[in-house]
Amino acid sequence: VQLQAFGGGMVQAGGSLRLSCVASGRTHLMKLMVWFRETPENERERIAAIDWADSSTWCADSVKGRFTVSRDYAKDAGYLEMNSLRPEDTAVYFCSTGRAGDSQTYWGQGTLVTVSS
After folding, report:
1. Measured between alpha carbons, how far is 104 from 57 in angstroms, rounded to an integer?
2. Tell me, what's the pLDDT at 75?
3. How many whole angstroms separate alpha carbon 56 and alpha carbon 58?
4. According to the model, what pLDDT value does residue 6 have?
5. Cα(93)–Cα(19) distance, integer angstroms
6. What is the per-residue pLDDT for 28?
């Protein structure tokens, strides 16, 4: 599975961005799509996930109520809608996934989000 993440950029505090993560290759049997971020201090945080089959979601407390995760099953694409952005949301955002019966975790290349105060 190959993942391509895009949609990052620079935004002022309070603004919004929508990240996309498009999967290609052997996408059948994808399980979860998980979003992580890595801060300038190199802290990695898992922030959101969506079950590929039933679209149930989970968000970390740090982003709950501000970020929404979704997916388009037909397009093999996941989305992270980020609202009310804060300077502390500045990070490189990654998407990852795995497939049933496959122990490997697949990663996108990361997309940088910079939030200015």
Report:
1. 21
2. 95
3. 7
4. 95
5. 9
6. 86
| Three-state secondary-structure class, residue 52 | coil
CA 16 from centroid of its chain's CA atoms: 14
Encoded tokens for 115: 């939030």
Here the tokens at position 103 are 């122990």
Note the Cα 106 to chain centre separation in Å: 13
CA distance 21 to 4: 5
Name the residue with tokens 């300038």.
Answer: 40
Interatomic CA distance for residues 53 and 70, integer angstroms: 12
Nearest to 28 by CA among 112, 99, 96: 99
pLDDT, position 87: 97
In the chain (117 residues long), the average pLDDT of successive 10-residue segments reads 96 98 92 95 96 95 98 96 98 95 91 97
Angle at CA of residue 48, ends 3 and 114, nearest 5° = 75
